[in-house]
Structures are given as structure tokens and as C-alpha cells.
């Protein structure tokens, strides 16, 4: 498990002097926080911001709980503001306070690949594009996850969920081939859970042509996979939609619950910690 040391950062966003230990944060972002390109906070040191976000991106390979927040702040690499920098630093404070968190992989009777996909709708205040989130579990913990802004503007929440399902389906195909190469052939269709009954219906029923005729062809790949019985889109209650953690900032109670559903838990600290990020005064 990768760990980040507590570095000498002050909690005051207006003072980057390294005179006090970094304080921790219990979550990555404020609930439903939106970031603007121009927020009136002034320009941040771009080099420091990119260095910080680059280190956080590295950590997302083992910390799915920070995936959404890091994906969000990374959209502002070209012209970061002080508020963007403060938001990124809060993610770092969260990591600093949860050094012992990691993904537990326990012995199970079967290794069945299962997926969860979700999307917000028009969540980006910059261009009104939606955010796709998905993850796949194998046994007791997640093995792949993603949070990414969709390439086109969705005109309905159903369309946004449908596009997210298509992205998850592509990942499922890759995972099934990888597991086959590793001698773990997946029998039957891989189940992907969505909390949108309309999006599920669109993958199965051409009657929904009116809702889908404007959607780019590449997103309809999911229909072919459903017809071939390689994947199966299943409904799940929104409260149990694990991928929700990859689409928006959540209240702490739901954030911590979905984090545990990812298979994440505390490890006992052993030995030293690995310094993967170091922020220096510019």
C-alpha cells in the first residue's frame, strides 16, 4: 500500500510557509462543490499546483476514494486559481489523515467480475458536461475504477447514464480478456449495476429510438455487448450505487459508506512511509 507522509504544510491557504504540521481532513471536498475557471481568488503558482495534482494522480492508482476529487482538480491544470490549489491541498490533507486506508483483498470461493456505473448530469459548471464514474470488483475489493468527464453534453440524465454504461462496458470487455489470459475465464455475462432504469431499457429495447438517435454511435457499443450476452446491465438502488463516489462530492456519511463498499479498510502501519509528494516553496 502506498502511503504519504505528513508534510510541513500550514492549514492557512493564504500562507504556504512550512512552519506547522499538515492538518488532516475527514473527506476530500465539500458536498456538491463546483469549481469555476474564474472564481475571483487570484492566480495560483501553476508549477506548484501541477506538482501537487501530479502526485495525487499517482496516488489514485491505489486510492479510489480520491479519484473524483483528483479528476476534478486536474481539469484546471492550464490556469489554476488559489481556490483550485486549496481544493487540491484538501485532498492531500485527507490522504495525510488516512494513511492506513487500503483495499482489502480476501480469499473468496469465486472470482466473479462485477461492475457499477453511474453519472451525474451536467455537473461541470464550465461546459455543462456530465461525469462518468465506474468501478469493477473481483472478489472482495475493487480492481479498476475511473472518474472522467464525458466527451459530449448529455441532454438528459438518462443519456448521461447511458454513456456511462457504455464506458463501463468497454472496461468490462478489457477486463474479461485480461482475466481469460490469466486463466480466470468469466462464465456468463458480466453484470454491471446502474441506478437508471431508463438507461437499462435503452440497451435492450430499440423502441427508445427517439431518446437515443442523436447519441454518437460509439456509445451504442453497449447494445451489441448486451445482445451477445457478454455483459448484462442490472438495476440497483441509488443508495447502493458504489460508482456514485466517482461522480460527485458526497456527504461524509455516504462517502464513508461507499468507501467501505469499495473494499477499503484500515491497515496497521508498519515501517516507514513512502514520500510520494513533496511541495516546496516557489
Automatic annotation (TrEMBL):
Highest taxon listed in the record's lineage: Eukaryota
Signal peptide: none
Compositionally biased residues, Polar residues: 19-31
UniProt-annotated stretches for the region Disordered: 1-31
Protein name: Reverse transcriptase Ty1/copia-type domain-containing protein
Taxon lineage: Eukaryota, Viridiplantae, Streptophyta, Embryophyta, Tracheophyta
